[in-house]
């Protein structure tokens, strides 16, 4: 299961024992896999500032998660590979996401703990916003090349009635630069080859005898050339249509054909050239964004724990990975062990629609202990 619960409870003697008891109970009953989650001693500041910060961090948490999911999704789009293969490239600090989370260590160099919480939060917010902006810019440039290339490539597949003929026709298939004669391309169903050979010369006046030749074939039809006088072209087209022979609207233009081939070659090269650097950027910034997100979670636990349990700062944080079939039982066990922290919450009497500043109750579940969910199921595509 990819869902984790990051919880904290007051760190006095009895509750430290309660955490250990909870760890013992959940492990023995196979309810969850637990690990310590170490949050350093951060600068508290004023309680008023913490109340405002709590709301700010809640919004930043949601934004950061959305950026991470966009990065993961786009890595999948760029790699054009299986979900498992893409998942292997979603790393944080060089390790898989679960390993990073369960062995979390605060990055002292990037987020110095001597700075005010507001400064650290603003730094994280600026970092996430910059990654999001850069992603939009890079994705737009790459998608433009990829879209144009796909558009050209789509033209090279399909039936002879609709596909581009750039890679099929040759100069020698046509009578060119003639004031009187023109070569047309006709799509003939496979079951009508004999009828075409028998009738094409008589479909109209002034058709050059023995001028037809099949130059391409697919599963349904063949593409034939036929040469005739320009002045009977429209009459020939009408007669051909009546016999279920379809004349393609195509006139040989060497410059245009060359230009289309060159564009296809150029776009293919551009996509290949951008692929490596873009994928490297995505992987590096996915790692940075994920690391920042977990630091945001740690900040939320710290701020909420101080607001709930008061000063001096003294709480214990732990990461629980609930077993898929035991989430309800695990929640019941936690409520039983920590119900003394908030009798109303543990009995389900708290109104979760209330909006009390600093307690982050609105629109989310509330428990007698601090609890935030971390879902590592961030790659959502087939």
UniProtKB/TrEMBL annotation:
GO cellular component: lysosomal membrane; vacuolar proton-transporting V-type ATPase, V1 domain
Positions of transmembrane segments: none
Keyword terms, alphabetized: Hydrogen ion transport, Ion transport, Transport
Subunit and partners: V-ATPase is a heteromultimeric enzyme made up of two complexes: the ATP-hydrolytic V1 complex and the proton translocation V0 complex. The V1 complex consists of three catalytic AB heterodimers that form a heterohexamer, three peripheral stalks each consisting of EG heterodimers, one central rotor including subunits D and F, and the regulatory subunits C and H. The proton translocation complex V0 consists of the proton transport subunit a, a ring of proteolipid subunits c9c'', rotary subunit d, subunits e and f, and two accessory subunits.
Function: Subunit of the V1 complex of vacuolar(H+)-ATPase (V-ATPase), a multisubunit enzyme composed of a peripheral complex (V1) that hydrolyzes ATP and a membrane integral complex (V0) that translocates protons. V-ATPase is responsible for acidifying and maintaining the pH of intracellular compartments and in some cell types, is targeted to the plasma membrane, where it is responsible for acidifying the extracellular environment. Subunit C is necessary for the assembly of the catalytic sector of the enzyme and is likely to have a specific function in its catalytic activity.
Family to which the UniProt record says this protein belongs: Belongs to the V-ATPase C subunit family.
Name of the protein in its database record: V-type proton ATPase subunit C
UniProt organism field: Pleurodeles waltl (Iberian ribbed newt)
